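fyi for ur records
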Amino acid sequence: MPAGKWRGNTRLPCGRDHRELQVKGSKVMIKYKRAGIAVIFFAVFPLLFSAPLFARYGDISKRLPSISRYTETSNSAIAVDVNNDGYIDIFIANKGLNRLLINNSLKELKDNTNLLPKIEDDSYGLAAGDVNGDGYKDIFVANKGENRLLINNQGKGFIDGTSAWLPPHSGFTTSGSFGDIDGDGYLDLVFSDSTSADSVRVLINDSNKKFIDKTAEWLPAYNAAFPQKVFLCDFNNDERPDLLVINSLYQQNRLFINDGTKFNDETPSRLPAREGCSNSAALGDVDGDGDIDILILNEGFEKDKNGQLTSEVQRNRLLINDGSGFFTDETSARLPKDSDFSFDAVFADLDGDSHPEIVVANGLRVIIDEIKKQFPNNYSQVLARFGLTANSGDVVGQKNSVYINDGNGYFKPAPSDFLEKDRNDFSRCVIAGDFYKTKGNEFFVVNSWGQKNRLYAYFPGPSVATKPKIKKQKHKNKSASNKTSSAMSDTTLSQAVTGARIQRSNEVSRAAGGMYSKTGPFEFDITPKGVKVDRDVESEINASDFADVIIQLKEPTGIAISSLNEPEHERKTEEWKKKVKGIQKDLLLQLNNIHKDKFEFLTGNPDKQPPDFKKNIADYDFIVKYIYDLTPHLAGKLTRSGFNKLKNDPNVKMIEKDRKVYASLDYSVPLINGDDVQALYVNGIELDGNGETICVIDTGVDYSHPSLGNCSLANLPDPSGEPYSLSTPHPYSNNYDNTWTITRPGWSSIAVHFSRLETEKGWDYVYILDANDTQLKLFSGHYTPRWSVSVPGDTIKIRLKTDVSVTDYGFDIDKIADSSIYDTPLWNCPKVIDGMDFVNSDDDPMDDNGHGTHVAGIAASMDLTYRGIAPGARIVAMKALDANGSGYFSDINASIQQCISWKDKYNISVITMSLGDGGEYNNPATQCDPYTPANQIKIARDNYGIITTVASGNDHYLNGINRPACASSATSVGSVYSKNWGGVGWSVCSDTATWADKISCFTNRDEILDLLAPGALITSSVLNDGFGQKGGTSMATPHVAGVTALMQQYSKKRNGAALTPDQIESTMKATGNPVTDNAGNVTPKATTGLTFPRIDAYAALDAIAPISTIPALICGSEILIDDSKVGRSGTAAWDSLTHTLSGNVTITNLDSVTFFSTKAVIYWLSDSNVSVIDPNGTYPSLTVNGNTYTNKPHYLYGNLNLSSNPNNSITKSWKFYDPFSLPFGFAAGTVAKYCN
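which gave:
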């Protein structure tokens, strides 16, 4: 057989591209033999589960390379493995530069457009096939102008082979399709052309050398005004590829039957007569009889019997094959009626029953003037078909459609929220496939008219009506020290997150000699060595050779982590950490492991890879994502080889899948008496949570929002410094320990700039030390270029200390500066003072979803109208959920431990998490506590005094709550209405009537639910500096966090001591307003009859210390104290390096009076570019507009804690930042009330 001919493993599906190749599932094949060569055409019907399940698809476009999400004019796409690595890649046809997304071994789509010739075309269609027999797929690009054939250079890139392979042609080609037309074993090509008399061209492959135009020999005279798509497929089961032509402009689609020597037009006898305005077709066996059926995608309007256009929008048509290539139009019986403008579709099994569903790409484009011209007499009727009038604006975009197969080829529309965040895009193409080798297929939707392409991922889970429930189990009553809690997924007004837990029948254990168990949130096997193995881990490894996991090791013996009040708590905690680290290291030494940061660097930059590093995921046992320091756990990607080692390791306790979690005020503050609390003062200090910090684990926080600090990272000064060169060895060695000292006589402080800083995260460290070897900062991991923290004085020391295994780059220092540099991008932010982004692995927790910003605003907004519960509290933001509101437990674990590590630095008293996994659990001991992140929540509570509030979830469960809220150490929170909102409908239920303190129908509840708080409908901060309403247990949870901050501040002021988490929770429960869950007006009707406490902030504080005993103060009016004006010109306090001007305000006459509500103010600035900053980072930064404030009250800047001293005075230092170094002036002072 000559090279390149059909082989047994070379299968070409029906269609214009290879989209069927990437779809997961079983295959129905139609075989034929030609010249002794087996040729296989097949349709694909994915098999995901053994029983039908409700599925939901979320928009995960953020996982695409950022450049491919930009607004490009895309027309088509093809899914094809271009480098033969077993992972499906995506080629996108654009108007301009086409793009190639390569799917690496981590199943990440990376933009590798550099592998394509740098040619800008106007491309409309694609086809893939191995035209030269080298085993790699080549690409035909259909262009407006010259078509192109890109020859695959064995997966290393593409070469433009147009001139060598294709006959000259210049027209408007919209599609192409490969197939062995003449049966000689070589791939031939057909393509459509709307500009020539021969509207479809047939090119025959001359023995893998070039294509020869044989249209005249193969195709009878045929001229269509605008052919859209061509498909080669064996429709009549004679083992030869036939030709289907899809025509536009109201012309009949055509079917040409291949007799071995030519195509014969047998349209009249085989296709139903119908003149349409068709755009494309989808091919597949919809009724399960083994034959290829056809779905025709139409656009435009019907014609009447006289050929005149009517106002009736054309339906898509479903043509059923009788097995011999004769088709019957069964649209009315099998397909829901539609009025869409459809451009493309794909068949794929979406609900797990092995029958193909339909995904339709729609692209409605209604230009009012064009409709008026086309239908001058009845344009109003036409526009009404689209819900428009003559006064409506033009429309570009339409939601896509999904139709569910009943198993016999009859379709019904999918639920309205099947495609999450489905937008009114102008979609031209859709491809479906198992790009990430997960349990389900993904969709890639190609959008035009400057709209972003989008990727949708499979989120499994039963429907609301059929979600499986864990049978309710009795358990011991909770006490303050041993209680149960709830977890959350978030319901907003538009939608709720569906459950992600799937129950299966009790299977025989797959771990040889092991046993089966199902007592927790998932099924697991117990190996002979006693290791609990999550069955989903084993399934994923069997399917794709690796799985994302959390590994629990057995705890160290002879030592326990120290409790908060235990003597020598800090020393014992450090000993515990050392033991944990030793256990983790012992395990990693048995595995061939590499850290995620380094592996991504290696796979992403092949030209920079050291030759001794391995490059494939299969070369490693484990790719480390996190090494936790408080629990003997690790997270990362576990390969098949690593799994085989760990499942029999006696030191391993559990191998758990790293599962996903989802993000689950004007009226709410008065309901819980928060406004009464905020009117209280103790010793002249307002009760607003000042001094307390709330750690928000969510989608991040928009720290630039006016209600949350109005901070902008772009305004942070970056000193230029002076050049300085210092580097470690590259790479550094094992057991390396060296310290470098830099001294600059006369400098007041010194900082170094790392142009590159990369160490093995969690094992090798860079320390910043002062002259006395005091540690001021520690680095471990990979960082972007950054300044170190400033070290006071003229000397800084930098130490690198490494361990016994695995090395990395080290660091390069390129400059030093005499300046005050802070060690976080948020050093100058008044409200959101620090944070981490565990989604993007950096220290900028900016919100890209909006959920976390809404949560933070409820807890601590400073806005005067939509004020948070504790407006004086500060926020530390942990971004653990992505732009779609979803994340992984491994990132939640890391976030909790980061909150714990910053507890003393920022006085963190509460962690709040408005998220959950969608499951229903009611037995903490068996279903929640053994699994992450329950152990981290317990350590935060018992060992660090941090209470964790978690949303119970929004699934309308009555016998359980989500994880992690169900953990014994978590404080779970459900939702009540903040007032009478009338009837309110949600995704999972409806409240036909509402009132204050009515439990929101969506709230998950059970006996283990701890508290209720207002959660519907709550107005709080949203992205783009605005405010908006949301509803959900997500909104209730930060109310409890805010009240916690108020309680801690009050207890410290009144009693001189902080409260323990047990005291906080028990006080809220004891003083809360009892709410019984027996109200009606719920659809579906369901209540528990249980009573839960709804928090009452005022009552909680009164229980700590009677509010009536707060000493009364008699105060005068607010006055300006010691007003002074300072000019910049000639001052010695100007620092040209940092562009800052320093000044002081002194307050005198402090004897015999108490200053009450004392505020520092800036009430005039001459330059709008000048910012006010505080040298201690304690008070808000402020930028004013340069106007004179003579007609306004003094501009509030921040509260001062003043007290008498021997000199009867106090001095407040100021700094002003001016990026342009221009002269300016300001007026500063202090206002206060005299109180006796």
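The chain is about 15% helix and 35% strand. thats all i got for now
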